[in-house]
């Protein structure tokens, strides 16, 4: 028979329940109001509308479809190449011995101590001086570079914690560094790789300032497009169509929700393995 719960445990669970409901409230607010017309939105912000207006999603989809594709291209390309380059660097720092290894890693670690906003203006000037076109490359290349320090630090820690016996057995069998990396290190580090990918993916997906400065209208990403979107039709900044706006916010969150639903187990496994402390 299950023992009765103590008062302290009930209070703790009650607090967790309240915090959970508070964290879910923005989702409820966006979903409920995405089905309202302007009159229903003005009358009550919190109720479920008596008549739904799903046409808001059609209006929102027309505005976010192309920017969503742009964001998917920018985000997944950036994260993929960030991981690819970081895996190579982390392997060298963790499992190879060469002159200057500690100094180089200290320089990489020092990059984490520089706030992003301090590098924004120099980065913008550098992008313009390289004469990059106002398309995906002008945001993908800086994003890959910006993600290297964190990814290398986490992956180096993960690679150092791999069982030395397995790595030594691979060396005795004659495996090269490339073979050890591809057939031993990477397969054993999949949860950490997924965790690093998701941690990098979220800020890249939500990045606004740099894309708004360097991308032209045809390559505009989702956060930039959402700022310009006022709800379609006759709406304007003074009288936006909040129903369509909320629908666009819901649609913009769908890719991350779906991705996280499929990768949640590996993400948590990577976080709890001890390699990722973020």
TrEMBL record:
<keyword id="KW-0813">Transport</keyword>
<comment type="similarity">
    <text>Belongs to the binding-protein-dependent transport system permease family.</text>
</comment>
<dbReference type="GO" id="GO:0055085">
    <property type="term" value="P:transmembrane transport"/>
</dbReference>
<dbReference type="Pfam" id="PF00528">
    <property type="entry name" value="BPD_transp_1"/>
</dbReference>
<feature type="domain" description="ABC transmembrane type-1">
    <location>
        <begin position="68"/>
        <end position="263"/>
    </location>
</feature>
<keyword id="KW-0812">Transmembrane</keyword>
<dbReference type="InterPro" id="IPR035906">
    <property type="entry name" value="MetI-like_sf"/>
</dbReference>
<dbReference type="InterPro" id="IPR000515">
    <property type="entry name" value="MetI-like"/>
</dbReference>
<keyword id="KW-1133">Transmembrane helix</keyword>
<keyword id="KW-0472">Membrane</keyword>
<feature type="transmembrane region" description="Helical">
    <location>
        <begin position="137"/>
        <end position="159"/>
    </location>
</feature>
<feature type="transmembrane region" description="Helical">
    <location>
        <begin position="12"/>
        <end position="31"/>
    </location>
</feature>
<protein>
    <submittedName>
        <fullName>Carbohydrate ABC transporter membrane protein 2 (CUT1 family)</fullName>
    </submittedName>
</protein>
<feature type="transmembrane region" description="Helical">
    <location>
        <begin position="103"/>
        <end position="125"/>
    </location>
</feature>
<feature type="transmembrane region" description="Helical">
    <location>
        <begin position="242"/>
        <end position="263"/>
    </location>
</feature>
<keyword id="KW-1003">Cell membrane</keyword>
<feature type="transmembrane region" description="Helical">
    <location>
        <begin position="180"/>
        <end position="202"/>
    </location>
</feature>
<feature type="transmembrane region" description="Helical">
    <location>
        <begin position="72"/>
        <end position="96"/>
    </location>
</feature>
<dbReference type="GO" id="GO:0005886">
    <property type="term" value="C:plasma membrane"/>
</dbReference>
């Amino acid at each position: 028979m299950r023992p009765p719960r103590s008062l302290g445990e009930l209070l703790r669970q009650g607090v967790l329940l309240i915090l959970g409901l508070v964290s879910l409230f923005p989702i409820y607010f966006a979903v409920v109001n995405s089905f309202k017309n302007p009159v229903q939105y003005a009358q009550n912000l919190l109720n479920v509308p008596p008549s739904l207006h799903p046409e808001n999603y059609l209006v929102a989809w027309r505005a976010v479809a192309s920017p969503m594709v742009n964001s998917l291209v920018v985000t997944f390309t950036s994260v993929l190449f960030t991981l690819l380059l970081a895996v190579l660097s982390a392997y060298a720092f963790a499992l190879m011995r060469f002159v200057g290894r500690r100094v180089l890693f200290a320089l990489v670690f020092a990059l984490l101590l520089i706030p992003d906003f301090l590098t924004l203006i120099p980065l913008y000037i550098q992008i313009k001086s390289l004469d990059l076109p106002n398309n995906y490359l002008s945001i993908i290349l800086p994003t890959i570079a910006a993600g290297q320090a964190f990814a290398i630090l986490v992956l180096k820690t993960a690679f150092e914690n791999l069982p030395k016996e397995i790595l030594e057995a691979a060396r005795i069998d004659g495996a090269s560094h490339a073979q050890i990396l591809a057939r031993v290190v990477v397969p054993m580090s999949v949860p950490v790789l997924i965790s690093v990918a998701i941690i990098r993916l979220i800020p890249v997906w939500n990045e606004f300032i740099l894309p708004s400065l360097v991308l032209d209208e045809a390559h505009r990403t989702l956060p930039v497009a959402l700022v310009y979107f006022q709800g379609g039709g006759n709406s304007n900044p003074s009288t936006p169509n909040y129903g369509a706006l909320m629908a666009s916010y819901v649609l913009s969150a769908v890719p991350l929700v779906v991705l996280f639903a499929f990768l949640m187990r590996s993400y948590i496994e990577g976080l709890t393995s001890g390699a990722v402390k973020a």
